[in-house]
Amino acid sequence: MGLRKTVGAFKGNLVSQFLTESVIYSLISFVIGVLLTWLLMPSFNSIANKDIVMPWSVWWFIPIIFISALIIGLFAGLYPAFYLSAFKPVNVLKGNLSIGSKSGSLRSGLVVFQFTTSVVLIIGTLIIYKQMNFILDKKLGFDKEQVLVVQGANLLEDRALTFKERLQNLPEVTDVTISDYLPLEGTKRNGNSFRKTGSGSEDRAVPAQIWRVDYDYIKTLGLNVSQGRGFSKDFVSDSSAIVINAKMANQLGFENPLGKKISNSQEWTIIGVLEDFHFKNLKEDIDPLALVIGNAPSMISVKLANGINYDAIDTIEKIGRTMFQRNPLSIHSWIKNMHKCMMM
């Protein structure tokens, strides 16, 4: 700066040089950032189960990028432009330039802020990376893959069972279950308290969920029965039977719960124990849960044989439209809903 001022450069020339260089650096940085975002977007969408795209065709996208780069470049170059161009050439060339305590404190503060920001961003990136790995690799205790949820099936009324039978006959379908109670946030819940039958008041009641399901629920969702069995149409007594999870068996104090009786508003006989599975988001512990045979017909879960594909979805929708033309059923991919739930 001292040499340039000595040979006749004005302060305005130096300010223009600094601002121009700063804006050019900013533009180059924005171009690199946008290109990296565009290249890495497919990988991000795959990991986060999103469908984000770069809005190249929107008229305001490129102007906003350019204006943002220009504004940031100007702000980044203002301070060094006016500060460095204000030095007197004589002092600079003689080496007598004193920055001063105030400017030194400001510079140190800016450096500390920059490194603090970098550290925070690095830590945040590592946390997000670990959280994404946790979400993708966490064993939920049930099989959510290849499952579609048909909503609004209660509109079929007494034809819901017929709809289920027609779906089971499709070669693309392996299992079908009718129940509003699913291990997915936003579906039906029913809290109750259970006690051992015949126990006195000294035994506390165990708060638990009681879900009404059909005979194919456990098989369709891939729940693991660790003791006993699931529901079967071969046993007439299963209308008063109950299947509980391991958490509920533990809280009731049963070492061998099979054949034991528990009650809420009626008496139930335990025929099976399920391995614990997550039916809320992963921020919360697994609660006691009981399954009984019952009617909850507004949602039908369909497990497909060869993965989620448009042909299978179209076939299911055609069957739904033929059975209830006024209100066509809405079909959503469970996989997308489940990932959304787990990220909340």
Automatic annotation (TrEMBL):
Keywords, alphabetical: Cell membrane, Membrane, Transmembrane, Transmembrane helix
ABC3 transporter permease C-terminal domain location: 1-86
Record carries keyword S-adenosyl-L-methionine: no
Signal peptide (residue range): none
Subcellular location: Cell membrane
Residue span, MacB-like periplasmic core domain: 145-312
Source organism, top-level taxon: Bacteria
Pfam families membership: FtsX, MacB_PCD
Segments traversing the membrane: 23-41, 53-86, 106-129
Membrane topology recorded in Swiss-Prot or TrEMBL: Multi-pass membrane protein
Main location, first listed in the record: membrane
Family in the record: Belongs to the ABC-4 integral membrane protein family.
Name of the protein this chain belongs to: ABC transporter permease
